[in-house]
Amino acid sequence: MKINLLLFLGILSLAVNAQSYQQIHSHAIVVDTHNDILTKVVMYGFDIGNNLTGKTHSDLARWKKGGLDVQFFSVWSDGNQKNPFAYALKQMDSLDAVVKRNPDKIVEVADSKELYKAVRQHKLAAMFGIEGGHQIEDDLSKLDLLYKRGVRYMTLTWNNSTNWATSAYEETFKKDLPHKGLTDFGKQVIRRMNALGMMVDVSHVGESTFWDVIKTTTKPIIASHSSVYTFNHHQRNLKDDQIKAIAKNGGVIQINFNAGFLDSTEGSKENIFLEKYKAESDSLTKVGKNKYEVEDYLFWNHKKEAEFLRPPLSLLMQHIEYVIRLVGIDYVGIGSDYDGVESVPQEMDDVTKYPLITKALVEKGYSEKGIDKILGGNLLRVLKANENK
User: Region 247-266: what's the mean pLDDT?
Assistant: First the structure.
């Protein structure tokens, strides 16, 4: 009888805990600052109003199922893109079309006031983030135009440097750079972003650029999709002094789900995977597929074989908790990089899985107030701090 009672209490405890994390997740405003689905929409003609399970990490129905309230849509191109500003507008136009077809499910918002209204209406609040400052083509008037179109952050560089800011990749691997950090024009870009109310994003930038940003900005910054250098010495990850500087600035670090940033062993594992399918890769390249299309195809069509690349969810949680322990719970959030990466943590298969982060946080003993901050509250604070009232 005593054993049965203990078993009953154990089951009851599990049920209460499950209900608790689901309720907390439902009540929170969940914000993801980085999703690359627009690249796939333009590249493959996908319609995110349809069920894209098995093809992408994201679509409207799955965002709803995952309890996501706010999505920053990444507007991306690499440094070889011709007319990158025009290509940026094309990606933004593709989301405009989705919104027009699904006005009951998604709405583009310009500020926190409109964002909260969308949340109350149970619609996905959509904003844009420019991933790569080369897309303004060294023209501040184009930065202004992008702001008018709904861009609320800009990642100053992608892997390629601009004429005015150096990237983490090139500062690490490229010799004889013409400059490091921000040029005078780069500082003008930061000041203009501050004046507009566009958040400065330091994901992808080199350390020289990072510290120049810290010295130049007058508003809190973000790292829209970065992880922790201590766990994985990748040039894209943030070192302790950078994390502390962002916290001192009042900004926020949005942790990236990319296995390559979370797990220090992923690079060697990925090389094994790609070598296994080299013949297939070469064939796709010969028929004109670019690097991104080839890797996308291989990972989505050999999912079982690529499973060994995926780190446990616990490692993602370690990155989140590391920031909390280092600088406090007010400076961390979520920037998944869904649909911009091939390999994400186990269990975090797509955008329906955000509640598993909430579940893990509840199990670790975090309060509802603290969890609300991690899921979106911290980012919303920074967004409001950047807005021109």
Answer: 97
User: Could you give the CA distance from residue 220 to residue 201 in angstroms, rounded to a whole number?
Assistant: 10
| Tens-digit pLDDT profile for residues 90-103 | 999 999 999 999 99
How far apart are alpha carbons 156 and 202 in whole angstroms?
A: 6
Instruction: Tally Cβ neighbours within 10 Å of residue 245.
Output: 19
Residues 229, 101: Cα–Cα separation, whole Å: 42
The answer to whether residue 18 scores a pLDDT higher than 60 is no
* CB contact at 8 A, 58 and 338: yes
* Burial (CB count <10 Å: 0-12, 13-18, 19+), residue 158: buried
Enter the pTM of the model: 0.92
- Cα-Cα-Cα-Cα torsion 370, 376, 381, 387, nearest 10 degrees, comes to 180
Rounded distance between C-alpha atoms, residue 77 and residue 176, angstroms = 24
- Tell me the CATH number for domain 28-263+312-386: 3.20.20.140
Query: In this structure, are residues 135 and 85 in contact, taking their beta carbons and an 8 Å threshold?
Result: yes
Q: Can you tell me the distance from the alpha carbon of 3 to that of 98, in angstroms, rounded to the nearest whole number? A: 56
Q: What does DSSP say about strands 70-76 and 31-35: parallel, antiparallel, or unpaired?
A: parallel
Contact residues for 129 (Cβ-Cβ < 8 A; gap 6+): 33, 34, 72, 73, 74, 75, 151, 152, 153, 154, 155, 201, 224
Q: Decide: helix, strand or coil at residue 33.
A: strand
Q: Is the pLDDT of residue 5 over 60?
A: no
Task: Please state the length of the chain.
Answer: 389
Q: Please, what is the average pLDDT of the chain?
A: 94
Q: Helix, strand or coil for residue 151?
A: strand
8 Å CB contact between 305 and 276: yes
For the chain, what are the domain ranges? 28-263+312-386, 266-310
pLDDT tens-place string over residues 35-62: 999 999 999 999 999 999 999 999 999 9
